[in-house]
Amino acid sequence: MKNKLFIVVPCYNEEEVLSETTSRLKAKMRSLIAEGKISEDSRVLLVNDGSKDKTWAMIKEISRADKLFTGVSLSRNRGHQNALLAGLMTARGRVDMVISMDADLQDDINAADKMVDEYLAGYDVVYGVRNKRDKDTFFKRFTAEGYYKLLGAMGCQVIFNHADYRLLSSRALDALSEYGEKNMFIRGIIPMLGYRTTTVTYERGERFAGESKYPLKKMLALASDGIFSLSMKPLRVITGLGVTLLALAFALFVYSIVRLCMGHTILDWKIITISIWGVGGLLLTALGIIGEYVGRAYMELKNRPRYHIGETVGL
Predict the structure, then answer these.
(1) CA dist 47 to 54, 211, 237, Å?
(2) 191 vs 37, 72, 83, 132, 167, CA distance in Å?
(3) Residue 186 φ then ψ, to 5°
(4) How far is 56 from 276, CA to CA, in rounded Å?
(5) Is 173 in a helix, a strand, or coil?
(6) What is the pLDDT of residues 145-162, one digit of tens each?
(7) Closest CA to 209 of 309, 102, 293
(8) pTM for this one?
């Protein structure tokens, strides 16, 4: 086994795009093999994340028709990050390197050539990074860039404009397997591995068919997973706000006593009411943030499996 590559592709309800995706991946893999960059026993691993359509049936048919394609089906839908992790861990021990990418054909498949070249040059982690967002709507561009900036401000190590299109070496896969979080935020954990890293830029295209699997609601959920699993900064912000409010309350108390001694009335009841509401809102927000950490710690304590493999094909 030398320079054996698996391309891991999580799939959820991708029947509209799967035929085109596998066709392009087949051409790319054949090209890399012909150039001698990867071994002939390299494979494409399609991971079915509990799809409700014909995705798994198509994967089995594709695999039986061409040994280049293999498949893994989770017992039920577990979400993109768990499906991706299932594919990576299935590939672990079988490969020298693995490339992960989405099934929607927005990631430029041709960037895989540069990723393999960087691996051959000695890099263990190669990030696929978007070079621009011209094709995105203003709202999509604003929320996506705000997402990365928010994670950075919260102290999370993330690569700007990088999602889950990357290459990992076998030892990077081994290191990733040692992280046991149940709410795993893979794109935030990879930079923590160390090892030699580099980036490959590419232009992200439009989705070939079907609908996006990451609407705003899921993006917000993914962002919260990243913040609460990688950063303690929200708790420190709460502490800072609490100390600030305590100082303001003490200053207001002193000011009120001084005014009372000078014969003035104490502050208007409206200001006091607003202050109470403000403090109450802050307390509820603080409890919510703390609850997020406690809830995640509770789920980690249960140590439940992140996924179950229901069926495989071609492995």
Answers:
(1) 13, 18, 39
(2) 26, 27, 20, 22, 13
(3) -60, -45
(4) 56
(5) helix
(6) 677 777 777 666 777 777
(7) 102
(8) 0.74
